[in-house]
Write a structure and sequence with these properties.
Layout: H1 3-16, H2 19-34, H3 39-66, H4 87-94, H5 97-100, E1 104-108, H6 115-128, E2 133-137, H7 138-150, H8 154-161, E3 167-173, H9 180-193, E4 198-203, H10 210-213, H11 217-229, E5 231-235, H12 241-263, H13 274-285
Bound molecules: adenosine-5'-diphosphate and magnesium ion (MG).
């Protein structure tokens, strides 16, 4: 291939937006020659690399737009720690048919049981499979809508929580009570998405407690009615994973302190043998 031809191909790649092919073309051509690739193999390789690079850029962008506070995966979730949670049901969600069916997912349970972890892990999967996703806590969504309302931009702001994402994660429902106006913002979001696009909600409160949190029972019923009509509800009844981590760290610290005390040589001036030290350790533990 002469230089002129190569320049023309590079220019075409640029104009077609095949930037990955453009960047790696010389290297790929060298490899193709060394490894005696046929024409089809070369073309196949170039197109596949271009698609893979676009796909990874798309996923990166989708994850950025989703505004996750951190990234979590289902692989990193220890289902053995939460026996009340049906792993098969959660893995069914990972197939994302709930998104196609415009169903909602409710993850309920006390703090630390992994509600946000699971919500993010499912939403990350949705990003990977081409869905537009947005993550918010209920509190920050209400604050954003309330501020927009105050400046006459409610309709515009509502769109970022309704039509702009195929999946909206609303985290931490129930941490703070809502007044009537605030509950009304939530109603508008839920009503606009009803049977059109999915929600994942997490809450530390049982659904039966929501009416008291939303200030207005009629409004709460209207919200719940729409959320629960097509929803999969998961009530996680286990222990806090955060506490487990802290407890095991504390246990490990206590164990190594006890171990250090046992191997520490006796101070001659104190005239206490190892057995008396062991006794005092035991007393301290009791
Ligand atoms: P919640 O939202 O229910 O309060 P989080 O999802 O924030 O709890 O979990 C707290 C921390 O513990 C996070 O770092 C999360 O990744 C981790 N975690 C919770 N449950 C599990 C689990 N079963 N396996 C692995 N990590 C977990
Ligand atoms: Mg949480």
């Amino acid at each position: 291939m002469n230089e002129l031809q190569l320049d023309r191909i590079l220019d075409h790649c640029r104009r077609l937006g095949l930037m990955h092919v453009h960047t790696g073309l010389s290297e790929t051509l060298r490899r193709a020659e060394t490894e005696s690739w046929g024409h089809l193999q070369l073309l196949d390789h170039l197109l596949e690399e271009e698609i893979a690079s676009r796909e990874s850029r798309r996923i990166k962008n989708a994850l950025k737009l989703a505004a996750f506070p951190f990234l979590k995966t289902l692989d990193a979730f220890d289902f053995a720690f939460q026996p009340s949670l049906d792993k098969a049901r959660v893995m069914d969600l990972a197939a994302l048919t709930f998104l196609q069916r415009k169903e909602n997912v409710l993850l309920l349970g006390p703090p630390g049981v992994g509600k946000t972890h699971l919500a993010i892990a499912l939403a990350v999967r949705a990003c990977q499979h081409g869905a537009s996703v947005y993550f918010t806590s209920l509190d920050s969504m209400i604050r954003a809508l309330s501020a927009a309302d105050a400046s006459g931009k409610l309709a515009h702001k509502l769109k970022s929580f309704t039509t702009k994402s195929q999946l909206l994660v609303i985290d931490e429902v129930g941490y703070l009570p809502l007044n009537r106006a605030e509950a009304n913002y939530l109603f508008q979001v839920v009503a606009a998405r009803y049977e059109r696009s999915s929600l994942i909600l997490t809450s530390n409160k049982a659904v039966s407690e929501w009416p008291d949190l939303f200030g207005d029972h009629a409004l709460a019923t209207a919200i719940l009615d729409r959320i629960l009509h097509h929803a999969q509800v998961f009530s996680i009844k286990g222990n806090s994973y955060r506490l487990r981590e802290r407890l095991s760290a504390a246990t490990m610290a206590a164990d190594s302190a006890a171990e250090a005390a046992l191997v520490e040589p006796a101070a001659p001036s104190q005239n206490r043998g190892p057995s008396s030290r062991l006794l005092s350790d035991q007393t301290a533990v009791v």
